[in-house]
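Below is a filled-in request sheet from our internal design queue. Each sheet records the structural input a requester submitted and the sequence that came back. We keep these sheets so that new team members can see what a complete request looks like end to end.

REQUESTER: design group, bay 2
PRIORITY: normal
MODE: inverse folding
CHAIN LENGTH: 111
BACKBONE (tokenized):
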């Protein structure tokens, strides 16, 4: 399984269970988000604690997911990204469009 999920009030926390986020994972993530949105979830926190590597497909999936969720009237925030993953977001300037929090509790509280 790509990620586990837990509900905290209105917020659905998705915890990645893989250390690499790449092409096939990206596709699976997008399909899962589509299903979760049709089931009524709108507010997401994506926990990246276990992800140690993300390639361009992974970045594309995260960007696509954010756009898709926002266009569906929701929001998606990230948390617990490693320094390596955070630097990837900074270098690509994606840190300007994503809200990235140090902890899951901070991300949930930001809603």
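RETURNED SEQUENCE:
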């Amino acid at each position: 399984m790509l990620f586990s999920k837990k509900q905290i009030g209105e917020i659905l926390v998705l915890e990645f269970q893989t250390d690499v986020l790449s092409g096939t994972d990206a596709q699976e993530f997008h399909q899962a988000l589509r299903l979760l949105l049709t089931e009524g979830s709108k507010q997401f926190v994506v926990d990246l604690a276990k992800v140690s590597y993300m390639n361009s497909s992974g970045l594309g999936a995260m960007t696509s997911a954010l756009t898709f969720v926002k266009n569906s009237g929701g929001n998606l925030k990230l948390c617990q990204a490693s320094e390596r993953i955070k630097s990837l977001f900074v270098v690509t300037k994606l840190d300007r469009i994503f809200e990235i929090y140090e902890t899951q509790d901070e991300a949930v509280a930001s809603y």
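SHEET NOTES:
- Residues 46 and 78 are 5 Å apart (CA to CA).
- Residues 23-38 form the longest helix (16 residues).
FILED BY: M.R.
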